[in-house]
Specification:
This protein is of the alpha+beta class. It has two domains: 85 residues, SH3 type barrels (Roll); 35 residues, no CATH class. A hairpin with a 4-residue loop joins strand 1 and strand 2. The longest helix has 36 residues. The protein starts with a helix and ends with a helix. 5% of the residues are buried.
Amino acid sequence: MKGLINLMPLLVLIIAMYFLMIRPQKKKDKQIQEMRNGLQVGDEIVTIGGICGKVVKTKDETIVIQVGADKVKFEMMRWSVSSVTNPSKKAVKAEDMNVEEEEVKKVVPKKLKKSSDVEEDQ
């Protein structure tokens, strides 16, 4: 009984460290991995080394980026991408279309949706 009470502060500390340090880091790593896997042609990126470029080709583990006024192309590993500064217009349009469709489904009932589509066409 006394031994369990002596271990309580240590257990509370370990649990607190998990929720304050380990779990948020895993969540952040997952988001970064999703960003790197979601790279598309046309995305403007910044690498870990600070190189800014535009993705012109994607492969499984690598991407080809175009850099500078001379449009120099080189291949690099996906893990070297730090952030996407300007997503491609195709990806943005697809996301916008999905949001608009969801809003229409939520706001307009099915019976009224058909009549509103007719009004928009006229």
